[in-house]
What does this fold into?
Amino acid sequence: MRTDAIEQPPPPGKPDVTSVAYEIPREHYLNRDYGWKSWLFTLDHKRIAILYLFSITFMFFLGGMAATLIRLNLITPNSHLLRPQTYNKMFSAHGIIMVFFFLIPSIPAVFGNFLVPMMLGAKDLAFPKLNLLSWYLYMLGSLIGIGAVTFGGVDTGWTFYAPLSTQYAYGNVAITIVGAFLAGFSSILTGLNFIVTIHKMRAPGLTWFRLPLFIWSMYATSIIQVLGTPVLAITLLALFAERVFHLGIFDPKMGGDPILMQHLFWFYSHPAVYIMVLPSMAVVSEVIACFSRRPVFGYRFVAFSSLAIAVIGFLVWGHHMFSTTQSPYASMIFSFLSFLVAIPSGIKVFNWTATLYKGSIRLTTPMLYCLGFIGLFAVGGLTGMHLAAVASDIHLTDTYFIVAHFHYIMVGGATMGYMAAMHFWWPKITGRMYNESLGRAAAILLFVGFNLTFFPQFIAGYEGMPRRYATYAPEYQFLNIMSSAGASILAVAFLLPFIYLIWSLKRGPIAGPNPWRATGLEWQTASPPPWYNFDVVPIVTQGPYAYSPEADELADAQADMTRAQVEYELTRREIEGHHQKEDSTRGV
Amino acid sequence: MFNLIPFLLEEASENAGRYDALFFGITAITGVFAVIVAVAIIALTLRYRRGQKVDRSNAPLYGLTIEIIWTAVPLVAVMGMFVWSTTLFFSNKKEPANALQVYVVGKQWMWKIQHPEGRWEMNELHIPLNQPIKLTMTSEDVIHSFFIPAFRLKQDVFPGQYSTMWFKPTKAGTYNLFCAEFCGTNHSGMVGTVTVMPPADYQRWLSTGTYQPSIAAQGEKLFRQFGCSGCHGAAASVRAPLLDGIYGNPVAVQIPRGDVPLERVPATTLTADDRYIHDSILLPEREIAAGFKPIMPTYKDRLNEEQILQIIAYLKSLGRSNGTSNGGASTDKTSEMSPSDYKARVGFTPANLPTITKNLKRNSPAANNAPAASLPGGGTPGKVTPNRNTPTTTPGNRGTNR
Amino acid sequence: MVSETQNTPDPNAASVPAPAVEAASLTAHAPDAPHGDGHESHGPLHHHFDDMEQQRESNTLGMWLFLGTEAMMFGGLFLAYSLYRWMYPWAFHEGSSHLNITLGTINTFVLLFSSLTMALAVRCAGIKDRKWLVRFLILTWILGAAFLIVKGFEWTADYHEGLVPGMNWFYYNEHPAALPRLAEHGISQQNVMMYFVVYFCMTGLHAAHMIVGLALVGWFTFLAAKGRFGGGNDQPVEILGLYWHLIDIIWIFLFPLLYLIAGFHPGGGGH
Amino acid sequence: MTQSTINDHLDNPPGDPEHSTHHIVPVGTYLMVFAGLMVLLVMTLVAASFDLGEANLIIAVTIAVLKALLVILYFMHLRWSTKLTQVFAGAALVWLLILFVLTLADFFSRSWIHMPA
Ligand code: HEA
Ligand code: HEA
Ligand code: CUA
Ligand SMILES: [Cu+2]
It folds into this structure.
């Protein structure tokens, strides 16, 4: 690793100018060895992260296709495009893919895998073999899953409620269940791996309160994965057994109880929603700090709120069953706890906002995504209050209000966090910069398209339009047309990054170790990082986020000088007819 | 912004008004926070953009006071919302005594609705204005959900158990009826209308259109056809309780536990509402009429939900008996039971006999159509929820005990 | 309260990479140099760990987490059990009375005993006593196998009696004599069936774990015989032991909850 | 070496860290524990042979818990494990408790609203 790389940080925002001062390091984790074997049998957490990156992005696009069909179909009230049966299979496929195969693994498996060891100053995760195994489980599960939902299809919704799923549904439910089951185990392994790594493999001097908030959030996520997922696993097993052998565990006709199934399902699936959003919160904490050049405000509160969310999140699942015959007293308790879970989330939102105060804010692409996250997550979460209130949920449940609620959090929140992470660490992962202005454009487009798509659904929901409807009453058409229009914008906004990120792989200017001049451990090594992440095991002497606007100004001055030197250097080399650029690209 | 007229959904029931107050109340409270966050982010971002010449010196890294504030304020806010919604929720639980009973059966993918007088309709519900209506609902197959947006009410409908909801329509007109729980292929086709009409029109409507012998009559047929009368009839040889007047009245029952011999199980009182009778037919072992041998066979596979509804209607139509029966059910018998009486019949004197008789006495006046205790609106416990004895009496009986 | 650990940023933080890297430590932490602090490192140390101690603790912790997930998984079934037993007390009583308490007891004994042998095996690994390590592992394997065989007998018996829901359920058609007894308690067959559903799910899942356990124990016996667990590399055995004991614990609960509902009456039968 | 302040009282066993990992338990202890398990097994059967109504279940479960504790503490060395390990072992139980209490709370409390007054 070239040391001057660290001493001459590029002026943020315009790495393209100084990047020539950097070279892609001669050997790094991507070019250490080649061939499919070196990937499919790799134990390196960074390479496994890449494997996940590809598979998960693919899943997202599949889910998106389904969403596209859903929205197209809903342009007209009476389902011109698809037969109801097909429509049902579509939103089931959409929900199953997006939840089990995209969002739950997304940030932990990709960026968690890549960053947790680096942020800890470790060489790898505690159990590299488990890590690879978890990817294979995921692949197996997701392939079985998408196979099932595309050929033959499933018409149960992602919630698999009995007795519909066990007796009356047509699609190949059993196979899909196997898929989700396997994916679940992959998720357990990831979480287990993280917990052990975070406890046991921190670099010397890296005390708990010197950990980046990313790690705290990831830790909370892992706890949910480890303690919650097994219950989903057993529920799916039971459903499978019932579907195949007609055991009647949940079948009222045989003395079974469908509501037990709902309890078991939501005991996992509510905490699971925090598996989806906590990692995005992790990303936001990092990005906000970096681009407002300020330590995250109230570090400890943000850190512990993650744990609070993880724990309280386990006590509220009954709020999905207010309109069943659940005991009113139970409903009351669940409602109460659901309101409580808002508090730690609020603490996060407010502390992030406070971090902006007296910062020196740069609206880079990742930052735009993160600000978007905060706003949309707040709206999604706050509408969660309407649902946490039993009396008002009775009317709203199973309407589009719910659909809007969770898309605000899962798309506007979690998925935006995923995009933010993608852009923030892209230089670290690939060593290249993407096109900043395209990035910003995409981020803004996403924000606009998103609100156009999902805000009308709040209204439709309050107006009483039920969800999972292939055909609907004509009075809702106007709102649905708005929604579909928005969705097409969304699609473009998601396709754009896909294109320019790929493009940047070859053409993008070289980023250098630390283009954002960030302070996290992962930025203290070359990008792409070497095989064991660090040439020397770092010893940590201070907390994260040692940013400060003042220091920034100083560094800027330095950077300007650097740039001057570089331009001088350039011209000199030009004169010598020495083509630095080609040399440097050869390194890739 | 929701209040824009075109977006306002009709408020056609007593509940709707209170609901909207709550809904927009919550929207307002949460809206405040949303605005605060949004404004703060935008303002700060603009003010402290890089390059802005502003004072960035000694910025705080944390502040205990501010943290406490933005923990406490939302806490107060959410607790406020919680209390508001919960009180509304429970205040809606009990339906008025004069509620009109209508029976609903959901099947893939239609609603079958039966009025007590025997008028039945498909995917349509006609009800008189300003008259409290109580729906007793069940499903033949999967889970459905009975949803009337204009009333702001929804209740899931489960196979094999009853759920009920009640409302008081306050505005004549025709409103959407949806099935809100995904129930398979034609879920989105399981829709209909609710028509609220002035009582006079309602009477006229009742007397027209597709008729069936009144539900009670059908029930009576079944009652004979399936041999109920063979045991429950006054002349029956088998010793089974007379069912006259059981409906809506307290009954003394024993709730068996594991291998504890029946004689050792103390009796308790329940109200013979729809759920109780439904379970007595499908799961006779669950609650045994005190003093009888549990020899009644289950009718789980022989009677479908619709038929059971008809039988219940029949039992309801029987009214009060004048106590010539040995019916463990009929109020006046049990309530006057002295310990010796009781022992003579049951073979033991339950520890909680006083409580039982007290309960029975207290409830015997409530001998009208409306069950003394049954549960509109929210969740009615279904078959899966045996009526365990009141916490006050022998608490031992509850739970997974033997 | 927050201040002391909330580090104030130093102005040059941006230019001086934080956290600073101390030159002194470089030699000590050169990559790929396995070394223990204080005690000599023994056994194969994986490249990404710093020393044996760290590796050991990581593995133990990981295994315990895994056991946690197992507990949660069975927890779902125990929940179903509790609910349905509460709903159908008599039916569960009836169903349980069909089980063979004697065999159940024997199996409980066998499994507890295998736990002992496994614990001793782990101990032998710890004190590097290869001979006895192998012997105890073999003993454990035999006991485990015995358990499964007995279970197999029980199941086949149930199968032939027609007590296997979903596959072979005709008991009450063949024993009309039993029907009065059901009627006596007003039990419907289906609720007895529910008992057996729960019974087979729980014992089935447990048996599945046993089979995995057996495979592992067999494999480890082989490795132990080849002396793979000498030289301080005894931890794999310890880990295996943890798994084996968990299976044992689950059975400890299954036995009374499934077999003894109807009580234990040596003088013949539950009735 | 990667021990930090928080770590010290979480990841480290009381006393010599060596013991955290290979703690050699005397054979005698194991035999005692096994004897204890056998006694409890007999107790289970004896208790089941009396008809005590509710008590039967409670007794049976209590004994089972005792057995499990013996296995966990001694056979599985939890007694000598790091605090951290103990914490996670405990966590699983707490979470099981959550699952049971909240779910059964629903079913048990359904009928309350039905009780005559
Ligand atoms: C990432 C996913 C995610 C997240 C994070 C959440 C978060 C929350 N959800 Fe959501 N939810 C879903 C995904 C998610 N949800 C999904 C997928 C469904 C539908 C499942 C299905 O049926 O298909 C659903 C359904 C759902 C229901 C059931 C609705 C129904 O079917 O009847 C309820 C009911 O209470 C609910 C509540 C909440 C609450 C209270 C939060 C809280 O955690 C929100 C906390 C956050 C905030 C409150 C905002 C920030 C806080 C402040 C700005 C401070 C000020 C705040 C206050 C004063 C309140 N959600
Ligand atoms: C991570 C979770 C996630 C994500 C990201 C999304 C993303 C989207 N969802 Fe999703 N949705 C769910 C989770 C998610 N959803 C869940 C759990 C349900 C409940 C299912 C159930 O009821 O069981 C649901 C249900 C659901 C419904 C309700 C269906 C119904 O109840 O009848 C609708 C309707 O509009 C919808 C729309 C969308 C849209 C427009 C997007 C957009 O954000 C998608 C945008 C992305 C793309 C479009 C892909 C990228 C672009 C391409 C692949 C190019 C090709 C496409 C074009 C050229 C247009 N979703
Ligand atoms: Cu019936 Cu949906
Ligand atoms: Cu939830």
In short: Strands of chain C lie at 163-164, 168-169. Chain C touches chain A through 63 residues (CB under 8 Å).
